[in-house]
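Support request from a user on the community tier.

User writes: "When I paste my structure tokens into the form, the page sometimes reloads and wipes my input. The last time it worked, I copied everything first. Here is what I submitted, just in case something in the input itself triggers the reload:"
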């Protein structure tokens, strides 16, 4: 599931007329970077949630249906109410029929290191011990990110929150595998997935995989410029 329903306020003024997932990086809409990564990883069923400028996103997904006839695209329509991350995922749960699924923030992309990060996540996933498995990037090498980090991770991959006022080595990339039962005690109405993560963390069921590569977060116009410069330099080579 590609999360594409946000307002993109931090990306203004670029998002005044265009939804953030359709902002272009290296000549390609952000959402297409996500779609291409998923398809390359063998994914053939993709849910996209929409809210802001939903008509533009739906039109774009209709074009992708033609370009990628082997991939089934489904729209999770949130136009009547802006849902937070947790409620948006809960709304889409029936589409996954109780199966675990991957979520992917549309403003996230990365340059691979050794092998495929999605393949490593799939190999590491264990529904017996995990409610969620996150792809985490080292803060020190991230592009477009200047925060204090999100999580500490032990040698086995179990996660703990960054203590308040401290710095943590890892930031969530916006990519995770989750079980449907992560939302079994979810509240009604709008809510953040952080609530569910905290419950799983307490139970020792929130895990991470380290990204072997460079994560790029495209959250602001400045971050978009940084990403463009990084990709240009990468294309030039040493």
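"...and here is what came back when it finally went through:"
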């Amino acid at each position: 599931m590609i999360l594409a329903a946000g307002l993109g306020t931090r990306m203004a003024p670029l998002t005044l007329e265009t939804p953030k997932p359709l902002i272009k990086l290296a000549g390609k809409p952000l959402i297409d970077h996500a779609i291409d990564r998923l398809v390359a990883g063998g994914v053939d069923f993709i849910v996209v949630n929409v809210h802001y400028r939903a008509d533009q996103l739906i039109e774009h997904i209709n074009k992708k249906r033609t370009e990628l006839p082997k991939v089934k695209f489904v729209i999770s329509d949130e136009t009547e109410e802006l849902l937070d991350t947790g409620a948006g995922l809960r709304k889409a749960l029936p589409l996954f029929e109780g199966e675990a699924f991957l979520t992917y923030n549309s403003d996230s992309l990365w340059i691979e290191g050794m092998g495929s990060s999605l393949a490593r996540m799939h190999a590491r996933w264990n529904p017996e011990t995990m409610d969620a498995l996150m792809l985490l990037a080292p803060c020190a090498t991230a592009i477009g990110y200047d925060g204090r980090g999100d999580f500490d991770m032990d040698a086995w991959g179990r996660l703990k929150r960054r203590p308040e006022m401290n710095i943590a080595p890892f930031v969530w990339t916006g990519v995770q595998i989750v079980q449907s039962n992560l939302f079994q005690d979810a509240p009604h109405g709008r809510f953040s997935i952080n609530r569910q993560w905290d419950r799983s963390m307490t139970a020792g069921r929130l895990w991470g995989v380290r990204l072997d590569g460079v994560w790029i977060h495209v959250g602001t116009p400045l971050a978009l410029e940084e990403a463009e410069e990084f990709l240009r330099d990468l294309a030039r080579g040493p």
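Agent notes: The reload is a front-end session timeout and is unrelated to the input. The mean pLDDT is 93. The first strand starts at residue 2 and ends at 3. Escalated to web team.
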